[in-house]
Write a sequence for this structure.
């Protein structure tokens, strides 16, 4: 994979984003979304209990979402294709047949933040990084799918305010608003995220996924529509 690396450690699949340097900021294109989907295929096909930990090797940026410069050069058909594959990624990640943890060790904006919302658990840095839905400011409205994924966060008042104002929240604020399940200093963040993923990997996979997906019926319906 060109922009991410998938490894298996102690029954935990670790998907590390590696495209944050040189202004790339782990931004999303159709090709990059295809890499995510290929990684999900690998996890789904794994025999036995497991969990997926999504993280990043960069200390500043987790993902700033869609590559807008790239998208502006697309024709209408290619934009529709990207929208479909991105929404498919969000739904498949939200309904993955394994527990999911996202380690947000830098800025998570727009599509990067929405992707993090699809995970079961989110851990963030306590000292650096922002979590933001800037769509209202960059004139890219939410779609029904991306809106429902964002609303998987438990604090609906915080979600509403973030979606309508584009405010960027710090790690401390995200913990207070229940956007992040926990925050840690950078020195221990990756370790704590792995510990959580490993503990979830010990759960019975079928039982965990059945319970989790029953909590997300709207996403189940979206994925069915996207893959018909």
């Amino acid at each position: 994979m060109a922009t991410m690396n998938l490894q298996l450690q102690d029954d935990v699949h670790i998907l590390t984003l590696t495209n944050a340097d040189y202004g790339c900021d782990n931004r999303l294109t159709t090709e990059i979304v295809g890499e995510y989907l290929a990684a999900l295929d690998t996890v789904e096909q794994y025999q036995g209990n497991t969990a997926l930990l999504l993280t990043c090797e960069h200390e500043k940026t987790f993902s700033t979402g869609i590559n807008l410069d790239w998208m502006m050069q697309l024709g209408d058909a290619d934009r529709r294709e990207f929208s479909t594959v991105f929404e498919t990624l969000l739904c498949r990640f939200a309904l993955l047949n394994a527990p999911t943890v996202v380690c947000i060790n830098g800025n998570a904006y727009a599509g990067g933040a929405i992707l993090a919302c699809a995970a079961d658990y989110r851990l963030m840095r306590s000292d650096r990084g922002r979590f933001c839905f800037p769509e209202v400011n960059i004139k890219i409205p939410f779609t029904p799918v991306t809106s429902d994924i964002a609303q998987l966060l438990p604090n609906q008042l915080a979600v509403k305010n973030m979606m309508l104002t584009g405010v960027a929240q710090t790690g401390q604020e995200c913990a207070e608003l229940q956007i992040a399940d926990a925050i840690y200093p950078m020195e221990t963040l990756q370790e704590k995220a792995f510990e959580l993923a490993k503990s979830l990997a010990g759960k019975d996979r079928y039982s965990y996924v059945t319970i989790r997906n029953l909590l997300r019926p709207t996403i189940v319906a979206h994925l069915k529509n996207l893959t018909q």
